[in-house]
Every structure is written in structure tokens, then in C-alpha cells.
Specification:
The complex is a heterotrimer of chains A (308), B (266) and C (386). Chain A contains 14 helices and two strands, in the order H-H-E-E-H-H-H-H-H-H-H-H-H-H-H-H. Chain A has 308 residues and is mostly helical. With 386 residues, chain C is an alpha+beta fold. The chains are: A mainly alpha (308), B mainly alpha (266), C alpha+beta (386).
């Protein structure tokens, strides 16, 4: 009874014989109105303001006017393309690391944790409740120049390799790209683990047994059954990691140096210190467009459009 | 050989636990360094054990004030976003209306937008309107970005709810309002609670959007940010540690409560 | 029978359309007070929609619903003296059994519900479970809670939407008797929607067989079974052997038919199609009415019985009976169910046989219909109905 059980919305019933469900028609709009209005005024409208600001010229003292000065975009790109490239590279590296690190943990919680499942879940989520800035600052201690981590990396000659790759410089990890990527990875790891866990948890463990029964070795089972079925989690996890990482400036600021500045740092400085609004707006607009384009492409390619 | 086999079988467990360690290491450091007595202004190197900071958690100028502002904003933002978001979620699941696609996009986009973009554009709006930056602008911003997350959480719950439950209530003489209060709301409650909790955590911990739209108001994350340039008092670690413990206890308590209720039922 | 007719359900011309899809065609139906009425049909036949229109959960596109003399067509569900036992029960997961059962009373502002609820739980034998949550009960217990929750309100009519669909076979049989007992005890009109023909026939006084949004036939279970009026009913209710035959002549009350050389007799009263000489008629007979005799003993078949010949294609022994499939010139898959009383060892696949039955068990149907309508595809898409 497909047509029947697709339950029609519950309309608040009207008394007596009035044409029924008239009042019900407006209910969704009343429910939507305040929240949607909020998003339109404080999310969509600002985007338009920003677009307009990006093509204005003028100065703080004399005020700004829309002059369709698109050159701002070219100037911004010409001047700050390294930061853009860096943002994408760092965010991509952090996303990949999150996937590699997060997958085993999500898998562990979903299939192997047994009665420890809840405890591990809590331990994954609980750090959220300590301000992320405090936790990021802790990395300054962990990666300190004379700390055990740097010492160990130096003794194992890992630093020589990373120096050669340009990820670190001198005998330091702090204030290098490695530290920034490490911080980004750390900060957004839970955003990777949670969606991964959600989609892994939905997989019937009997599928693993069935795959084993049909002559698949554990690794083949993972490649042919588990991983494909966890794709929705992989897709939303990578998005939830990449997007905020690309716009982040906190890690680059606290753990990096002037050589690791990302586009977020530039926008922040332009907006809050230099007060060059058009350039800042243009940069922000480019970032938004770039990310939306990348995300759309990615979602198309991975074929999971039911994320919303 | 036996060891290699064991290793093979438990590789994923070991890797997972290492990741867990990576996730928790900073919290350990934060906790340990809350007992530090640093030399100089920065609390990055271990010097000696001390309880000073725990004895005087508000011993730093402005820190507890900023904490209180953050709490107030988080509470109001949670209430605002939860109410508005729940309404939207119900509309999305339970009704048919025009422009559903546009509404869905408007909900999704804030989650797919780097914070710095939202922060910058919202600031342009406030500057253009000549708004006074401060508590209210922060609150507005927080409700804005928490809203989508609440909608997502509540929607998931309401969607998994059997519409026959509400029909059964109507069949048993509950009018629309009674149905909502007695059946719909209690069943949707876990989703709403999850959304509210998420909103609280997001708001309380937000830095980027707040930093752009705060004017001279200082929230706790902004205080921490500032102290990273000026000098990090040990009290920051005390607060961080307390937050972690409170969060864990809160979750454990709610789980114990759930367990007990389950056992009662059995 | 009481003279009170406040529990009558009268549907006049009600229909339901969703866009261009018609779930229920205009339908007239009267269910008398105190009867156990079943709406039987495959999934998608419109039976649940009909039920929901009586409950007020669905607004009819046309027509009206009367309870006794009251027009309730536009009354919302919470103002109708009608209660429903929902498919998969729809017990409130956040309330315990007691509160589930008390829900309707409380909504009507009744303060002291304890006694009533306890009595009701006693009636359905769940007194011990009052403080448990629904998910802690078994399927059968949940089902009884759903019944109690509805019955406690003393509705004029109790509507049951596939109430036993989620139970396993054994429990289902048990609950069928249980529901029947409760209905006799409380004397309320029950309207029961099901796709299970055995369930409908066991429980109901009157069964309406629905197909594609229309009532095909309405009557007592035995009437429907013994004298189906359409091929759908003939095939959907049990199994029928349908033979295409040509009307040869009429002989008083009897119609004489020809089918592939065989001469068959059909009582005129049992033919729902116009039978003019030379016209076509579908002749039907139920498998258990037919006797099987080995061709060697053909002479022993008494005179006056309808008889055809064939060869056994398949036989399966199922304990109480043996089911044969006969390849006959008139019908390639003629089914015969024979009681296992005196088994003839010669009746094995390949054996030539004579099939014969009392002409009084023959029924005639309009040959213009689809001969396979209602043939069992029901169990397969049972899940879709949920």
C-alpha cells in the first residue's frame, strides 16, 4: 500500500465541517519562518554584502563605493596565491591523515570494542568540551624544541627526511608546516571519526562472515565489502575535515610561523588589522567559491548526494 | 609465528588505540600542566609541582569574567538555536511545502562554509548596518551557525519516528496540541537534546566567528587566544581540565541513569 | 440482536484518490452493529485506506461515513468514537504499558483510571506487565496491549489494521481465537483488515474481498468460498480449478456445458454469468471436492457426476492429504486434494486417471475475466504492506 502508508502530513484538524486542512497548509511556513529568516538575514544577506564589498573602492576615511572594481580579485590572487595553495595543501594533507588515523579507530569502536565501545566514544567526544585553543596550545609543549618528541624524531633521523622534504626546518618542528598539519589533523580528527563510525556501525557484521565464507581474506573483505559500504562516512568525514581545515587560521597562527600562513590568516589580518575590506572580502569570496566548487565536484564524483 | 598472527589480527585495534592516544595526549598535557609553576609568562615547560592555580582559579584578571560571558552566550545561543532548529526540522519532516530544496540548501550551506568566510561576511553586514559589536552580535552569529546542526540532529530523530504513533494518539482522543506534547515531543526529545548539547559545545568553544564579531567583548576562547600572545596563565589549564572532567562525568552520569532505567524495566 | 444501531458503520460512496491514483473507488458498505467484519485483499487493494477513512486518519475524496445516525465524515480522529489497533501496534515507546492503556481515558479527562486499566489488562492477561515498557514485551503481548489500549475506551467500532501481521504463524492462530473471544465478550463492532484469507475466514462473520480499490464480493466466509462470483475471489480465497467451457444447453435448473469433449453440469443458481447457448463460461471446482479414480477403474465412477480425464503430473504428500496436479485436456494444471484415508498405490505421476465430482459443487463465472486474477502472489509482497 505504498500510496497509503506514505503518510500524509498530520494536519491539525479543524473543528466541524470547515473545509479541512486549510490551516494545516500554512503550518510549515510558520514553523520555518523564524529560523529561515535568521539564516537569510545573518547568513545569506552577509554573503551578498561581502560580494558587494569586494568590488568597492575607497578608504576608511572617505567611505567605500561600489565601483565594480574587479581588479581587487586579480590583485588579491596575485599577491596571496601562495597562501591559497598552502591552505589547500595543508587541508588536504590533514584530511588524508585524519582518514588514515581515524579509520582504524572508527573500525575499532564499531566492531572490536565490545563493552568498551561507550567508553571509547566518550573519550573521542569529551576533548570537544575542553576549549580547542587550550588543547592546541598543548601541542606547543608536546612539540617543544627540547621536548621528547623532537628529540626522538632527531635521533631516528626522521627530522633529516622531513627537513629535506621541506616539512620542517633546522632541529625544530614547531613553527613548521609539519606542526601546522599536525595541529589541523588533531583538531578535526573527531569530525572524521564520527561519520565514519556512524556508517561502519550500520554494516551488518554478518556481511563480514558472508565475505569470509565466500573465500575473501580479511584484507579483501575490507577492500570489497567494508570500505565500499563505509563510503558515505568517508565522504562526509573528508568534507567535514577539509572544509574547516582550509579556512582555519588558528593552527597556522599558534603552531606555525610567517612561512606557514594560510588564507584564513590573510583574511583575518586584512579584516581586523589592516582594515582593507575589499581585499579581505575578495579573498573570502574566492575561498568560498573554491571550496564550494571542490565540494560539489567531490560529491558528484563520489556519487553520494544524499548528505544533506 | 603466534605473535605475528596475534599482531595481524589485532593490528586495527593497536592502530585505533594509537589514534585514541593522539586524541587524548593534549588533554593529558593540559591536565598535567595545570599543576605547573612556570617561570616567566608562558606555561609551556614543566618546572615544578604546585596547586596554586587550583587554589585560585579566578586569580587572573578578566579570565573568569570572559568565562561567564561565554557561558551566557552559549546558554542563550543553545536555547535560540534549539527552538528555531527544532521548528525547522519538524517542518522539513512532517510537511510538504514549496521551496523545500532552497530551504535544505540554506540549512546545509552554513555547515559547508569555512568559518572564516561566514565570520568575515557577517562582519561586513554589521559594519554596513552600523551595528555595535559585542554580546548581541556574538549571540546572533552563534545562533546562526548552531542552527543547522540542531536541524540535522532533530531531523534524524523525527524522521525515524513512526508517524503511526501520532495517528494512534489522535485515535485515542488527543487533539493536535496534546498529541504534540504527550507523544511527539517526548519521542523527539533525545534528538532535541543531542542538538542542544552540540549547539552548546559549538557556541562555547567558538573562536573564529566570535573573534570577528565581538568588538571589545572578550569570550573565554578569545581570552585564551590573547594569552597565547601575552602569556598563558596556569589557570587556563585548570579551566580546561575542569571542563573535560565535567563533560566526562556528565556523560557517565547520563549513561548510568539510562542503564538504571533499563534495569528497572527488565 | 440488539435494536441499538449506534455501532453501525455506513459508508456511502466514499472514495480516495491521490493525484491520478485511485486507491478506493466509490464504495457503499454497511457493517451492522456487533458484527465481526473483515476487509480482505492483497496489499495495495485499498483496504487499509478504507479503514483509515473510517478512523478519520484519511479524508475521503468523496462520499460520507456514518456511525449509527451520526455523520462523522469530517470529524477528526480524536473526536470519533472509534479506536484502532494499528499495524505493528504503534505503542508509545516512552510510556509504560499502564500509561499506554490509560492514554485514551486520560485524554478524555477521566481522573481515576486505575481500576479500569487494571481490569482491562486482566482481560488481556497482562496484569503483571503494567510497569514494563513496550519494547520489553513479546510480539503477542504487545499486540494484546494494543487491543487493550483501544478497547478500554469502549469505542462504538474497533478497527484492526493487520493486527496479527507481525506475529509468527502459531501465535497468529492463537491470537485469532483470542480476538474472536474478546469480540464476543464485549460485543463491539470489529472491522478487521487483513491480507490473510484464512485469518479473515476464521474470525469474521462477514468478509468483503477487495481488489484494486473495489469490493469484489461480500458475504459470509462459507458463501465466499463455496460460491465465488469472480475469478479473483475464486483464486484469492483458497484454490480453484477453472475450466473454460461452452454452454451447450439448459435443462431446467441445470446448465450443460462442453469442455474439450467432456460434458459438465452446473446448477443454474451457482452461475454468476449469463449462460446463453453457445456462450463461454468459466467452470470452477475446489480441489478438495474432486475425487480421483485410476483409469482402469473408470467404470466404477457413479453416474451423474461431472467427469474429466487426465494424467497425474505431480503429487505431493503433505500429511493430512495428498495434493495432485493433473494434466488434463481441459486444464493443464488441475489440482486435486485427496484425504489420506485409503491411498491407491497406483496414483503416482504418469498414471492415467478420471476426475469426478458432484455437479452441485460446480460454480460458473463470467468468462470475460482474467482467469488468473488473484492467483497467489500475496505472500511474496507481504512486506510491502507494512
Amino acid at each position: 500500500m505504498a500510496a497509503v502508508t506514505e503518510a500524509p502530513p498530520l494536519a491539525p484538524a479543524t473543528p466541524k465541517k470547515k473545509p479541512p486542512r486549510k490551516r494545516g497548509r500554512l503550518t510549515p511556513y510558520w514553523l520555518l519562518l523564524p529560523g529561515i529568516l535568521w539564516l537569510v538575514v545573518f547568513f545569506a544577506l552577509p554573503m551578498i554584502y561581502q560580494a558587494s564589498t569586494s568590488v568597492q573602492t575607497g578608504s576608511l576615511e572617505q567611505g567605500y563605493k561600489v565601483t565594480w572594481h574587479f581588479a581587487t580579485y586579480w590583485d588579491a590572487l596575485a599577491q596571496y596565491w601562495p597562501q591559497f595553495v598552502r591552505s589547500v595543501l595543508y587541508a588536504a594533507a590533514a584530511t588524508l591523515l585524519c582518514l588514515v588515523l581515524g579509520y582504524p579507530l572508527a573500525y575499532l569502536i564499531a566492531f572490536r570494542a565490545g563493552r568498551w565501545r561507550n567508553l571509547i566514544m566518550i573519550l573521542v567526544i569529551a576533548p570537544f568540551f575542553t576549549s580547542f585553543l587550550i588543547r592546541t596550545l598543548a601541542w606547543k609543549t608536546i612539540l617543544a624544541d627540547n621536548g621528547p618528541v623532537v628529540g626522538a624524531l632527531g635521533t631516528l633521523h626522521v627530522l633529516d627526511v622531513t627537513n629535506w622534504l621541506g616539512w620542517t626546518s633546522g632541529d625544530r618542528v614547531l613553527a613548521t608546516p609539519l606542526a601546522v598539519v599536525c595541529g589541523l589533523t588533531y583538531n578535526f580528527l573527531p569530525f572524521m571519526i564520527l561519520p565514519l563510525y556512524t556508517s561502519l556501525e550500520r554494516i551488518d557484521p554478518r556481511l563480514h562472515e558472508a565475505a569470509g565464507d565466500l573465500y575473501a581474506r580479511p584484507w579483501t573483505t575490507f577492500r570489497k565489502v567494508t570500505f565500499p559500504l563505509s563510503m558515505p562516512g568517508v565522504v562526509s568525514g573528508t568534507l567535514l575535515t577539509f572544509i574547516p581545515a582550509a579556512g582555519d587560521y588558528v593552527n597556522a597562527d599558534l603552531l606555525g610561523s610567517t612561512d606557514t600562513r594560510m588564507v584564513g590568516n590573510v583574511i583575518q589580518t586584512q579584516f581586523l588589522r589592516i582594515l582593507d575590506y575589499p581585499t579581505a572580502a575578495a579573498l573570502s569570496f574566492i575561498l568560498m567559491a573554491a571550496i564550494l566548487a571542490m565540494v560539489t565536484l567531490y560529491i558528484r564524483k563520489s556519487g553520494t548526494e544524499d548528505l544533506v | 609465528m603466534a605473535f605475528v598472527n596475534w599482531l595481524k589480527r589485532n593490528l586495527v585495534v593497536i592502530a585505533g588505540l594509537l589514534t585514541l592516544g593522539y586524541l587524548l595526549l593534549p588533554n593529558v598535557i593540559v591536565t598535567v600542566f595545570s599543576f605547573n609553576k612556570p617561570k616567566g609568562r608562558f606555561n609551556y615547560e614543566w618546572q615544578q609541582f604546585s596547586l596554586d592555580a587550583w587554589k585560585q582559579p579566578c586569580g587572573v584578571a578578566d579570565m573568569c569574567g570572559s568565562l561567564s560571558i561565554s557561558l551566557q552566550i552559549a546558554i542563550w545561543a543553545t536555547i535560540g538555536a534549539t527552538v528555531l532548529g527544532t521548528m525547522i526540522a519538524f517542518a522539513l519532516v512532517r510537511y510538504r511545502f514549496r521551496a523545500r530544496g532552497a530551504v535544505n540548501s540554506l540549512i546545509f550551506l552554513p555547515m559547508a562554509m569555512p568559518e572564516v568566510v561566514m565570520a568575515a561576511s557577517l562582519l561586513t553586514l554589521f559594519l554596513n548596518m552600523g551595528a555595535q559589536l559585542g554580546f548581541w552580535t556574538i549571540l546572533i552569529a552563534h545562533i546562526m551557525f548552531c542552527l543547522s546542526f540542531v536541524v540535522t540532529a532533530v531531523k534524524a530523530r523525527v524522521m525515524s519516528m513512526d508517524p503511526r504513533l501520532e495517528q494512534a494518539a489522535q485515535d485515542l482522543y488527543a487533539g493536535p496540541f496534546q498529541t504534540f506534547v504527550r507523544v511527539t515531543l517526548p519521542i523527539a526529545a533525545p534528538g532535541i537534546a543531542a542538538g542542544a548539547l552540540l549547539a552548546f559545545a559549538l557556541s562555547f568553544d567558538d573562536f573564529i566567528i566570535t573573534n570577528f564579531n565581538a568588538g571589545s567583548t572578550v569570550t573565554f576562547p578569545m581570552f585564551v587566544w590573547g594569552s597565547a600572545q601575552r602569556g598563558t596563565p596556569v589557570q587556563i589549564n585548570v579551566i580546561g581540565t575542569t571542563m573535560f572532567i565535567v563533560a566526562v562525568l556528565f556523560v557517565l552520569a547520563s549513561m548510568a541513569l539510562g542503564n538504571r532505567r533499563n534495569r528497572q524495566k527488565a | 440482536m440488539t435494536t441499538d444501531n449506534s455501532g453501525d458503520v455506513r459508508l456511502s460512496g466514499i472514495s480516495k484518490t491521490y493525484g491520478s491514483f485511485t486507491a478506493v473507488h466509490p464504495l457503499d458498505l454497511t457493517v451492522p452493529q456487533g458484527s465481526f467484519f473483515a476487509l480482505l485483499g492483497a496489499s495495495g487493494c485499498g483496504k487499509t485506506t478504507t479503514l483509515r477513512m473510517i478512523a478519520g486518519l484519511e479524508e475521503p475524496s468523496s462520499g460520507s461515513v456514518h456511525l449509527g445516525d451520526q455523520d462523522v465524515t469530517h470529524l477528526p480522529p480524536y473526536k470519533r468514537p472509534v479506536n484502532t489497533v494499528f499495524q505493528s501496534y504503534a505503542l508509545f515507546p516512552h510510556l509504560d504499558i499502564f500509561e499506554n492503556v490509560a492514554f485514551g481515558l486520560r485524554r478524555r479527562g477521566i481522573k481515576s483510571v486505575k481500576k479500569q486499566v487494571e481490569d482491562m489488562l486482566e482481560l488481556v492477561q497482562l496484569g503483571e506487565q503494567a510497569r514494563k515498557k513496550p519494547h520489553q514485551l513479546s510480539g503477542g503481548q504487545q499486540q494484546r496491549v494494543a487491543v487493550a489500549r483501544a478497547l478500554i475506551n469502549h469505542p462504538k467500532v474497533l478497527l484492526l489494521d493487520e493486527p496479527l501481521g507481525a506475529l509468527d504463524l502459531k501465535l497468529r492462530r492463537q491470537m485469532q481465537l483470542e480476538l474472536k473471544r474478546i469480540q464476543t465478550e464485549v460485543g463491539i463492532t470489529f472491522i478487521h483488515v487483513t491480507h490473510d484469507q484464512e485469518e479473515a475466514m476464521t474470525m469474521a462473520d462477514t468478509v468483503a474481498v477487495m481488489n484494486a480499490g473495489r469490493v469484489e464480493q461480500l458475504g459470509a466466509p462459507t458463501d465466499l468460498y463455496e460460491n465465488p462470483q469472480t475469478t479473483f475471489v475464486a483464486n484469492f480465497l483458497g484454490t480453484s480449478n477453472l475450466i473454460e467451457a461452452e454452454v451447450d444447453s439448459r435443462n431446467g435448473d441445470e446448465i450443460i456445458l462442453k469442455a474439450a469433449g467432456a460434458k459438465l453440469t452446473l446448477p443454474g443458481a451457482r452461475c454468476s454469468a449469463p449462460a446463453t447457448a453457445g456462450g463461454k463460461v468459466l467452470v470452477g471446482v475446489r480441489p478438495e471436492k474432486v475425487s480421483l479414480t485410476h483409469a482402469d477403474d473408470a467404470g466404477e465412477v457413479p453416474e451423474g457426476r461431472n467427469r474429466i480425464t487426465g494424467r497425474i503430473a505431480d503429487s505431493s504428500f503433505i500429511g493430512v492429504s495428498t495434493q495432485y496436479v493433473i494434466d488434463s485436456p481441459v486444464c493443464p494444471e488441475f489440482e486435486v486434494y485427496a484425504q489420506n484415508i485409503d491411498r491407491d498405490a497406483r496414483l503416482t505421476p504418469g498414471a492415467e486417471v478420471v476426475l469426478h465430482w458432484n455437479p452441485a459443487h460446480t460454480f460458473g463465472l463470467d468468462a470475460a475475466q482474467d482467469i488468473d486474477a488473484g492467483v497467489e502472489t500475496v505472500e511474496a509482497d507481504e512486506g510491502v504492506a507494512a
